[in-house]
Specification:
mainly alpha; Flavocytochrome C3, Chain A, domain 2; 10 helices; about 45% helix; binds heme C
Length: about 190
């Protein structure tokens, strides 16, 4: 009996491994999305999300850091900060500026999910079904307030308590992510 249970649990672990691997898409970076979504890319580039990595450097936003209880030093390799100021850190995305420079900052995939699988579907068929890209990991941000709060919530040093300007009003913020353009096709 013990042997059977042992065997079954090995199978179970293997199945779990296969399933989790099949689900996890890769981060491909904003440069790849840009090829097909130039307008959104341009608009996003002008937000401070695009340059968010800069804020981790010494000598940048010294006053804001002080107010949030942070000293002025180099944070560009601090895992605590990288989690929110890069794309996909600790989830197969950003690793370091040397290895993954294209994933610095808060990019498309921070809000829309890792794109390797869903962008392959978008590439194949412009009239893809929304359900298919969602099943491949596409996040529609207005349906995912929790996803925003992973970075804008209590773990961030820059919250409403520190300065009211950091208040996260979901509906208002959705409007300032990037300019929105009507889609051409039905999905
Ligand atoms: C991976 C972490 C992360 C996630 C997830 C995230 N944000 Fe942010 N967001 C940031 C950081 C960091 C900044 C500040 C950039 C800076 O100044 O360094 C920011 C800034 C912003 C800004 C200000 C842009 C500007 O230029 O004024 C808006 C709007 C915003 N986020 C909306 C959202 C919304 C809506 C969601 C969820 C759909 C979201 N964010 C999810 C990390 C994140
Ligand atoms: C849990 C996510 C999170 C962590 C961890 C985090 N940040 Fe941020 N950071 C944010 C968000 C979100 C904003 C934007 C807040 C807003 O504009 O509402 C931000 C904004 C900033 C700003 C700009 C503030 C301003 O007023 O322009 C600086 C500088 C900054 N972070 C540095 C750091 C440093 C350094 C660390 C590590 C010690 C760090 N952050 C850790 C989420 C995070
Ligand atoms: C801070 C979160 C956030 C980031 C970062 C972000 N988006 Fe979006 N995106 C949204 C929201 C919000 C919508 C509106 C759809 C909804 O949530 O209902 C949207 C919609 C879209 C749409 C549909 C058409 C449109 O214009 O509304 C496309 C295409 C898109 N995003 C591409 C991108 C690309 C490409 C990037 C990176 C260059 C990007 N997004 C970065 C939040 C974000
Ligand atoms: C090879 C081209 C291509 C690439 C690369 C690509 N997309 Fe798309 N995407 C499309 C097309 C085509 C549509 C449908 C456009 C339309 O109907 O007007 C679309 C639609 C979308 C939508 C709207 C989905 C809906 O139905 O509401 C979002 C969001 C989006 N893409 C995000 C991204 C993000 C983020 C990336 C990068 C990770 C990306 N796309 C990469 C071609 C692409």
């Amino acid at each position: 009996m013990k042997k059977i249970i042992g065997f079954v649990s090995v199978l179970f672990v293997m199945a779990l491994f296969l399933v989790t691997n099949a689900v996890a898409a890769d981060y491909i970076s904003a440069k790849k999305c840009k090829a097909c979504h130039m307008k959104q890319y341009k608009s996003w580039s002008q937000t401070n999300m695009a340059n968010s990595f800069e804020n981790l450097k010494a000598g940048v936003k010294v006053e804001e850091k002080k107010k949030a209880g942070l000293e002025d030093k180099d944070y560009t390799t601090d895992p605590k900060c990288l989690k929110c100021h890069t794309t996909g850190y600790g989830k197969g995305g950003f690793v370091s500026m040397e290895k993954t420079p294209d994933l610095a900052g808060v990019q498309c995939e921070s809000c829309h999910g890792p794109g390797s699988d869903f962008s392959a579907i978008m590439k194949k068929n412009k009239e893809f079904a929304l359900a298919d890209v969602k099943a491949a990991g596409l996040i529609i941000p207005s349906e995912d307030e929790k996803g925003c709060m992973a970075c804008h919530g209590g773990e961030s040093p820059f919250v409403e308590k520190v300065d009211p300007k950091y208040k996260f009003d979901f509906k208002e913020r959705l409007k300032n992510t990037h300019e929105h353009f009507p889609l051409k096709n039905k999905h």
